[in-house]
Amino acid sequence: MEVFECVKTLSSIRSFVTGDVPEEVIGEVMESGRLAPSARNQQPWEFILVTDRGVLKGLEKYCTSGKFVSEAAFAVVVLTDPSSKWHEVDSTRAVQNMVLTAWGRGLGSCWIGMIDKKGLAQYLGIPGSLNILTVLPFGYFDDGLSGHGKSRKPPHEVFHLNRFGVKPGD
User: Fold this and answer.
1) Which CATH superfamily includes the segment(s) 3-158?
2) How far is residue 78's CA from residue 88's CA, in Å, rounded to a whole number?
3) Where are the domains of the chain?
4) Least buried of 6, 58, 83, 116, by fewest C-beta within 10 Å?
5) Contact assessment for residue 47 and residue 33, using Cβ atoms and an 8 Å cutoff
6) HSE (CB half, 13 Å, CA atoms) of 5?
């Protein structure tokens, strides 16, 4: 799938169907995060790949707004190094790379925002020097759940030309 097609159709997926994801696809998702651009090439991220069914089930306890993580084929816990001024921005770029790569390979995902970070850090042995940005579950999904008809504000409500308040075509 072309990148722009991925962007146009990308949707958050919160329900997964059973199906193993080939290791090469998991590798592409992980590698696309690692290859993301970052300020001063600091690469202020680390990724925990979770494939073990028991560990995935355990993540459910800490992902308050994402209990569905236990249904995923795999998950990625995205960690950031707060010693970098741009750790959250740069790591978010890595997340978007991973999500778009997965989408292009037929996998859905959803940014989990509400996390018991202290509990998750203990559960996975994450050092206190790192920040937990998000947990991303990945897996196959029922195509009827994708955002082919997603609703977005029309361009005239969000686009400005050269300065705020000037609409393209004015």
Assistant:
1) NADH Oxidase (3.40.109.10)
2) 10
3) 3-158
4) 83
5) yes
6) 6
